[in-house]
Write a structure and sequence with these properties.
single chain, alpha+beta, four-stranded mixed β-sheet, 10 helices, 4 strands, about 45% helix, globular, disordered C terminus
Length: about 220
């Protein structure tokens, strides 16, 4: 059960969605129920069209004001212009593993520096992680959401297969190990960002048993 203060914050965050063709997700500690009273709120807004600088600044200001209103910390390690909003096309690309193509077949590097965390490739990796990690759907285009999550789960299995040392589909345990920890021992935010082992296991179970080839889903707009 979500504590009442957290529910209020999530509902306020949902109210900031302005594009009927997109949706909004909360992820991180507020989605898993492990947040503290001042934990920052991780949000991803999606929409049909790119936001211009003024619209993105307005959305960022509204999210920052929400944090101040409820006494929440701000986490700006990943800049808000990178993590807060993505177009439907960018989500489709992320779900189809576009953020991993430069390092396909090898454990992707993660550099905890602003220059890396501000790149388009990292944005796509972050969106992919949101779709395949625990999150809360707060409203918007449910059809696009379901399609993109399903694509991302198939892609998670494909990514795991590319990181295993043999040909053919990996076992569930091999797939989980490949995405949970890099060969050099990196885990969590220093690797692919996965923090909840059972959820990743569930994602891969679905991805490995869905035999469709990963591709970008056809998005349908809300009516």
């Amino acid at each position: 059960m979500i504590p009442a203060p957290a529910l209020t914050i999530l509902l306020e965050a949902a109210g900031l969605l302005s594009d009927a063709g997109g949706y909004v997700l909360a992820y991180g500690s507020h989605a898993t129920g492990t947040h503290q009273p001042t934990s920052d709120l991780d949000l991803l807004y999606t929409g049909d069209h790119p936001l211009d600088d003024a619209a993105l600044s307005a959305l960022t200001a509204a999210v920052v004001a929400l944090h101040h209103r409820h006494g929440l910390d701000l986490d700006e390690e990943v800049p808000y212009p990178v993590k807060l909003y993505a177009t439907g096309d960018q989500v489709d690309q992320a779900a189809a593993l576009a953020g991993f193509r430069p390092s396909w077949g090898t454990p992707p590097p993660t550099v905890r520096e602003t220059w890396f965390l501000s790149t388009d490739a990292f944005r796509l990796r972050l969106v992919f992680n949101v779709l395949t990690s625990p999150h809360v759907f707060l409203g918007g285009n449910i059809t696009a959401y379901h399609q993109q999550v399903r694509c991302a789960e198939r892609s998670a299995a494909a990514l795991a297969q590319s990181l295993t040392a043999h040909d053919g589909p990996p076992t569930l345990q091999e797939a989980w190990a490949a995405l949970w920890q890099a060969p050099d021992g990196r885990t969590g935010k220093d690797y692919l960002g996965y923090l909840v082992a059972p959820h990743l296991l569930s994602v891969l179970t679905r991805g490995l048993t869905d035999h469709q080839v990963p591709d970008a889903p056809r998005r349908q707009l809300s009516r």
